[in-house]
Design brief:
single chain
């Protein structure tokens, strides 16, 4: 059996069926992972990661081309830095314009160290955003990087 690869995720199954029909019309075999779980318990959609539209690994490139999606980078931890002045609407993805965006928080060593030593959780997070349509992540920087470089450049 060939491995299936996730092309796109959806919050609800009816959204996935539309795209599934498009791919099957082009002759690509598809599978909806976690479809029945989300249909039985719709509020558990975020917990299971939504309904995942999957295709065979050999059809992945063709499916991405048909849907007009960019290939996702292998390293999901890659976060692009965008200046605050470059973004007009923080509720939209700056790359594809989608409103299907979520805030992601990840702890740093200051978060985990007290939890391990003392046994309580100190919430010090780095905030980033993720688009669930194009699967890209970004962080918003309040101060421009160039101003920081000019201010901290050694005097000659």
């Amino acid at each position: 059996m060939e491995p299936f690869v996730t092309v796109k995720t959806f919050t609800f199954a009816h959204e996935a069926h539309i795209i599934q029909g498009r791919l099957e019309a082009e002759g690509i075999e598809t599978f909806l992972k976690d479809e029945l779980t989300v249909q039985v318990h719709p509020f558990a959609s975020n917990a299971v990661g939504g309904v995942k539209l999957q295709v065979k690994a050999e059809d992945y490139d063709k499916a991405m081309e048909i849907l007009g999606l960019q290939k996702t980078p292998e390293d999901d931890s890659h976060i692009e830095i965008i200046e605050d002045s470059a973004i007009a609407d923080k509720k939209r993805c700056p790359f594809c314009g989608s409103e299907n965006v979520g805030k992601m928080t990840s702890g740093n060593w200051l978060t985990y160290f007290p939890f391990l030593v003392i046994g309580f959780f100190l919430p010090i997070y780095r905030r980033s955003y993720k688009c669930f349509d194009c699967e890209r992540r970004w962080a918003i920087r309040k101060r421009p990087v160039i101003n920081w470089i000019k201010k901290n450049r050694p005097k000659m």
